[in-house]
Design a protein that fits this description.
Length: 247
């Protein structure tokens, strides 16, 4: 009601969906889609019904990460712009077209009944983010960042934007933490360390955990076998199962 008084549209839930969780990042390339895919699969393996929407309209990567192609099927709970466009061609669209496509993906796909719908957001704080947060009754957002200063600065902006539009920030996942040397076992923090902890103190948003930089994760993404499925007992998969219980 307060929103309607201020002339803002009423936020409606997606039909048949109990929880809608956004996976967002300030920058591209920090592992947002990787986290979205693995969180969705880990949640599904804990017995929940789960859907996954790739709303990263300009750079959809879920079809590759899930090893999917062709037209979406009605019995599957994944949707991506990558199914509707030629993945080898760039999407050259203005903001209004992006917003309209996202509305269709949210409202015209038979999502329900679902316990959780994970939405892999485009990076940044633009039209798509506003379109989703202003129209959908969102449960909360998980922000993915690397420990690097440039990524953290943008992650902070993202967290502030979501709070301003009334979307609870469930936590931060720090991805691409230290890498372990396969020869001597020593750890190297390629993108620095501790940055998410600073955000936690500053914004009062919990760090749900850190995922190391690990070539196996990259490989599992490129071969369409997300790590929680291909190596469910690996340290990385266990960390992601832990996030599921935190969120
Ligand atoms: P975003 O969605 O933020 O653009 P992606 O999830 O597409 O980022 O990840 C970018 C690239 O980094 C992908 O090639 C992915 O396989 C790789 N990647 C993501 N997280 C890790 C990690 N922890 N270790 C190694 N590679 C990773």
């Amino acid at each position: 009601q307060a929103r309607m008084k201020r002339g803002l549209p009423k936020r409606l839930p997606i039909a048949g969906v109990t929880n809608t969780i956004l996976i967002a990042s300030g920058k591209g390339g920090v592992g947002k889609s990787t986290v979205a895919v693995n969180l969705a699969l880990a949640t599904a393996s804990s017995g929940k019904t789960v859907g996954l929407l790739d709303a990263d309209v300009y750079g959809p990567s879920i079809p590759i990460m899930m090893n999917l192609e062709g037209q979406p099927r009605i019995d599957k709970r994944y949707m991506s712009m990558g199914f509707l466009t030629d993945m080898s061609q760039p999407v050259v669209w203005r903001g209004l077209m992006v917003m309209s496509a996202i509305q269709k993906l949210l409202r015209e796909v038979a999502w329900g009944p679902l316990d959780y719908l994970f939405i892999d957001m485009p990076p940044g704080t633009g039209d798509a983010q506003l379109s989703i947060t202003q129209n959908i009754d969102v449960t909360g957002v998980v922000i993915v960042t690397t420990p690097q200063k440039v990524a953290l600065v943008d992650a902070r902006k993202g967290a502030v934007m979501f709070s301003k539009v009334g979307v609870p920030v469930l936590g931060i996942i720090e991805n691409m933490g230290a890498i372990k040397c396969t020869k001597c076992g020593s750890m190297t923090s390629v993108f620095g360390s501790g940055g998410a902890g600073t955000l936690e103190k500053e914004l009062g948003v919990p760090v749900l955990g850190t995922i190391p930089l690990d070539p196996k994760i990259q490989e599992s993404c490129d071969t369409g076998k997300p790590v929680v499925v291909s190596e469910p007992s690996s340290d990385q998969a266990i960390r992601i199962y832990y996030f599921v219980h935190c969120c």
